[in-house]
Amino acid sequence: MRKIAWVALGAGIFLAAAAYITETNDLPGAVELRTGGFVGYILIISAIAWFLLRRLYEWDKKAEAPRA
């Protein structure tokens, strides 16, 4: 799952950056790439959320470790 999250994060950054660059430079296809940029933002948010939830899970496992 970690590899999938990294790929989603990279793809999201690429899509969002492509949409931003085409929009700011008035390049052709900017309107069509807005949807791709939105999907990119969703991928970024989802990947970061997965990493944060994974970190919370690891912290919880450490906190519940039996202490002798």
Describe the structure.
The chain has 68 residues and is mainly alpha-helical. The protein has one domain. Helices cover 84% and strands 0% of the residues. The chain has 2 helices and no strands. The longest helix is centred in the last third of the chain and has 34 residues, at 30-63. The relative contact order is 0.17. Keywords: Membrane, Transmembrane, Transmembrane helix. The chain crosses the membrane at residues 35-53.
Quick rundown:
By secondary structure, the chain is mainly alpha-helical.
Distance between the termini: 33 Å
Strand count, sense and barrel status of the largest sheet are:
none
Q: Label the structural class.
A: mainly alpha
Inertia-based shape: rod-shaped
Rg computed from alpha carbons, rounded to a whole number of angstroms: 18 Å
Strand content: under 5%
The poorly predicted ranges are none
Furnish the topology, listing elements before pairings:
Layout: H1 2-24, H2 30-63
From the structure above, extract its key features.
68 residues; 0% strand; 2 helices; mainly alpha
